[in-house]
Design goal:
Layout lengths: L3 H9 L4 E6 L5 E6 L2 E3 L2 E7 L3 H8 L2 E8 L5 E12 L2 H16 L4 H8 L4 E14 L5
Antiparallel strand pairs: 1-2, 1-5, 3-4, 4-7, 5-6, 6-7
Helix pairs in contact: 3-4
Length: about 140
């Protein structure tokens, strides 16, 4: 589903994704997340008591925006369905991958141990729609 160009944009630099979820009263809730891609699946972790976790457990529809804030500016918008798991082995694995991506490989294990624990959740987003715009000011 991701074009090669969009995938490269998403993984080249560790941009933070902003995820929008739906509050119980229908209002949007937006929060930043660190993420990695696994094929066409976007993966991140979150605490089980966070607003976004509670929202996704009730309504799995999500919308993410990843942008490059430096000229010539690019961005990707991903609409999708979130699947949540508390299974520790994959949670630790992906927490380590995400930590290494954002904090450097030398700290990957530290972040895996910190974020791959009971109380944290692994979220996999299956995209249903992707929109990517590159170099919008050129």
């Amino acid at each position: 589903m991701f074009t090669d160009e969009c995938r490269q944009f998403l993984m080249e630099l560790p941009h933070t994704a902003k995820i929008a979820t739906v509050l119980a009263d229908g209002r949007p809730h937006v929060a930043p997340v660190w993420f990695v891609l696994d094929g066409d699946m976007l993966i991140f972790t979150t605490g089980h008591t966070t607003v976004k976790a509670l929202n996704m457990q009730r309504d799995p529809r999500v919308y993410l925006c990843v942008d490059d804030e430096t000229p010539p500016f690019s961005y990707a918008q991903i609409e999708g369905i979130a699947t949540i798991s508390a299974e520790l082995e994959p949670l630790h694995y992906w927490a380590k991958q995400i930590g290494g991506r954002y904090m450097g490989e030398e700290r990957a294990e530290e972040y895996g141990k910190r974020n791959g624990v009971p109380g944290e959740l692994l979220v996999r987003v299956t995209p249903t729609k992707i929109y990517y715009e590159k170099d919008i000011t050129d």
